[in-house]
Amino acid sequence: MLLFAGAVTAFVVRRRAWRVTAVVLSACGAIGTLTSWVVAAVQPGVPPYSLRVIYPTNGARVASPLLLTVCGVRGDGTMVPATDPSHYLVVFVDGHEVATVDAWQLAEILAPGQHDIRVELVTPAHHAFDPPAIASTDVTVTGGRQTSATSAC
């Protein structure tokens, strides 16, 4: 808005002082816009922890809805919930994105059969870390209702 208003004012106003002020404001708007584009494109760097799918374990036979539990594993081996205000999870089932969540436990309805579940840690702006923090598990969904207790980190 500042960019547009400054440019219009620079051409409409007849007094030199106002015209110079309008050009300066327009330049500030342009610099601010360019800076926001550059900052938004910056990758967040190294993830704060790696991811581990706590439940279900790889190869498990589960019922639907599936209660997925994902924890972060710090360098010293301590586990923390995988999400917080600065970190979200993107969930993929069979290669298709199904959710971006800010919860480390989520229920997902799956059709019976084998499924590949993959989760990736991202920022709230959906930027992936470099290297990416990814965890995956393969499950077989059977009929019936989920009865397992929740898992903790």
Describe the structure.
The chain is an alpha+beta fold. The protein has two domains: 2-41; 50-142, Sandwich (Immunoglobulin-like), CATH 2.60.40.10. 24% of the residues lie in helices and 37% in strands. It has helices at residues 2-12, 16-41; strands spanning 50-55, 60-63, 66-73, 79-81, 88-93, 96-101, 105-108, 113-122, 134-142. α1 (2-12) runs antiparallel to α2 (16-41). The longest helix is centred in the N-terminal third of the chain and has 26 residues, at 16-41. The two termini are 47 Å apart. 18% of the residues are buried. The mean pLDDT is 84.
Average pLDDT number:
84
How many β strands by DSSP?
Answer: 9
Given helix and strand content, the structural type is alpha+beta
Strand content: 35-45%
What would a concise description of this structure say?
With about 150 residues, the protein is α+β, with helices and mostly antiparallel strands.
Question: Strands, helices and their partners?
Answer:
Elements: H1 2-12, H2 16-41, E1 50-55, E2 60-63, E3 66-73, E4 79-81, E5 88-93, E6 96-101, E7 105-108, E8 113-122, E9 134-142
Helix pairs in contact: 1-2
